[in-house]
């Protein structure tokens, strides 16, 4: 009987976390005002506190010239829901740059391509899963992987193909 109530309580706690507003996030760093970002786009990243690959991805973005604001959240699910990220492409971190969402280990150069093209038919781009050799997932055996775009028409299509980078 105690297990039944423990499971029910755990479910209620999980539901409560999902209902937390984004304003309840804890920023790791002070936000950079847009007018002080040196003209570059600021990427706002939402990640859980224990994810090491997310931290490496943020380092990758910064190394490639992006201003990055990091928000630590208990779960990225509410952020994904707010931005309209389909569950099918959900990953361990979610970001927002301009009017677009970015999900998973998308390379900085592909994010820059999205920004430069100013596509109004795209809601966001994603790297589903955690491909070996993607930024934050460096590997001695990198693979080629696709960056998927999610259109405003609700359809998925290939935005780019990337060759993963070796960790050596």
Structure characterization notes:
With 168 residues, the protein is α+β, with helices and mostly antiparallel strands. It has one domain: 3-Layer(aba) Sandwich (Glutaredoxin), CATH 3.40.30. 28% of the residues lie in helices and 27% in strands. It contains 4 helices and 8 strands; from the N terminus they run αββαβαββαβββ. The protein has an 8-stranded mixed beta sheet, with helices on both faces. The longest helix is centred in the first third of the chain and has 18 residues, at 2-19. The protein starts with a helix and ends in a 5-residue tail after the last strand. The model is unreliable at 1-39 (pLDDT under 50).
Number of DSSP strand runs? 8
Q: How would a textbook summarize the main sheet?
A: 8 strands, mixed
Distance between the termini: 53 Å
What strand order characterises the main sheet? 1-3-2-4-5-6-7-8
* Class by alpha and beta content: alpha+beta
User: What is the helix fraction of residues, given as a range?
Assistant: 25-40%
Model regions low in confidence, pLDDT < 50 over at least 5 residues: 1-39
* Overall pLDDT: 77
Total helical segments? 4
Dominant shape: globular
SSE arrangement, N to C = HEEHEHEEHEEE
Radius of gyration: 17 Å
CATH class: Alpha Beta
User: What percent strand?
Assistant: 25-35%
Please name the CATH topology.
Answer: Glutaredoxin
- Specify the CATH architecture: 3-Layer(aba) Sandwich
Number of domains: 1
């Amino acid at each position: 009987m105690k297990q039944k109530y423990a499971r029910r309580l755990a479910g209620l706690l999980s539901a409560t976390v999902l209902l937390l507003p984004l304003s309840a996030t804890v920023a790791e760093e002070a936000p950079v005002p847009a007018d002080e970002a040196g003209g570059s786009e600021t990427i706002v990243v939402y990640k859980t506190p224990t994810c090491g690959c997310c931290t490496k991805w943020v380092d990758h973005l910064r190394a490639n010239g992006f201003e990055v604001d990091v928000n630590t959240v208990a779960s990225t699910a509410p952020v994904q829901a707010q931005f309209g990220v389909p569950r099918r492409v959900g990953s361990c971190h979610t970001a927002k740059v301009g009017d677009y969402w970015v999900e998973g280990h998308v390379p900085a150069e592909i994010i820059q391509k999205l920004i430069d093209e100013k596509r109004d038919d795209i809601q966001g781009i994603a790297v589903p899963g955690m491909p070996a050799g993607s930024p934050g997932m460096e590997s001695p055996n990198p693979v080629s992987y696709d960056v998927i775009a999610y259109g405003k028409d609700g359809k998925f299509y290939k935005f780019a193909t990337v060759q993963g980078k070796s960790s050596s």
